[in-house]
Write a structure and sequence with these properties.
The structure is a single chain. This protein is an alpha+beta fold. The protein has helices at 28-40, 89-92, 165-171, 190-199, 207-216, 242-245, 255-270, 278-308; strands at residues 5-9, 12-16, 53-58, 63-67, 72-75, 78-80, 100-112, 127-131, 134-141, 154-161, 174-175, 178-179, 183-184, 221-227, 234-235, 238-240. The protein has an 8-stranded antiparallel sheet.
């Protein structure tokens, strides 16, 4: 936390950013919508929604993807941006296809400020707090209309918890050391929700209020954290980007940045590539990015090992 202020507040370690957020944090839904609109505005891009890929492959001249309904899509190359459980990764790095469970879960929620009765001043910068071995990020977020006025924004929170591995195993969210899925409030026993509500008292307001409101409304998601250090990023006409290529803990704060850098490096390598030169260009992309992304994930693993024990 370079340049941050560290103080002790009622037994809670608080890391306060060294400057207020002049632009409020944007929720992922807003980022995704902006990216989708940008893609739809480009006539060269064809989007297929709700299409599930069941198989991929390549030969000397083409790569392809086959959907569950039997359609086949061919091209000079195939890029996998299909997340931490990437199908394409199984073809690029078949000897190590799965991301590893890091040993802790991230509870997430978002609440409209208007739903909270917190009487104090609204936060204008993010908080990172540490209490009883857990870590919490509290994040003020602009409202649906982009407003940052008091009472019209939202409160986001992200709670790192390394004490519920048995729960994740029982719900099937983690199996054989591999993250299978997130868990929603409806998947959790009432006992666990009651425990989380009680444990939220360790956090100062308004973060505590936001967490307890999310739990009461059953609007909380638990995401088991996965990590993946890539062996390679490309194979022939297949290449990986984003969380298909690397999976760092969110604690690094650089996952989205790494995805953008992947895209930028690919664009530079493929800008003037002829079809028969694609495999060589993808090899160059791997050489440009592999060392950096490996270091990013390994740096996050050092935190994970200390946090999860």
């Amino acid at each position: 936390m370079d340049g941050s202020l560290l103080a002790r507040v009622t037994g809670v370690t608080r890391f306060v950013g060294n400057s207020p957020l002049s632009a409020m944090a944007a929720p992922w839904t807003a980022v995704r919508e902006a990216l989708r609109e940008a893609a739809e505005s480009d006539s060269r891009i064809e989007l297929h929604h709700d299409l599930h890929v069941s198989d991929v492959g390549q030969d000397a001249t083409h790569a392809w993807a086959v959907s569950e309904d039997g359609r086949r899509f061919d091209g000079d190359l195939l890029l996998g941006a299909d997340g931490h459980r990437s199908l394409l990764r199984r073809h690029v790095a078949p000897e190590r296809p799965d991301a590893d469970y890091a040993g802790y879960v991230l509870w997430l929620g978002m609440v409209d400020e208007a739903a909270l009765s917190y009487p104090g001043r609204r936060p204008t910068s993010w908080d990172m707090l540490d209490a009883d071995g857990d870590i919490l990020f509290g994040i003020p977020v602009a409202g649906p209309d982009g407003s940052t006025d008091a009472g019209r924004g939202r409160i986001g929170w992200a709670w790192y918890d390394a004490r519920r591995n048995d729960l994740l195993q029982r719900t099937g969210a983690v199996a054989d050391g591999v993250v299978q899925n997130s868990v929603r409030a409806r998947d959790l026993p009432d006992e666990t929700l009651a425990e989380l509500t009680k444990e939220a008292r360790r956090w100062p307001r308004p973060w505590r209020d936001a967490i307890q409101h999310s739990i009461a409304e059953r609007e909380v998601i638990g995401t088991p954290i996965a990590e993946y250090v890539p062996l390679r990023l490309a194979s022939g006409r297949l290449a990986l980007v984003g969380n298909a290529a690397l999976v760092p803990t969110p604690m690094t704060g650089q996952g989205f940045d790494a995805s953008v850098l992947d895209a930028e490096a690919l664009a530079q390598e493929l800008w003037d590539a002829a079809p028969d030169g694609v495999p060589a260009r993808l090899e160059r992309y791997e050489r440009v990015r592999l060392d950096d992304v490996q270091q990013l994930v390994r740096g996050g693993q050092r935190f994970s090992r200390s946090f999860a024990g």
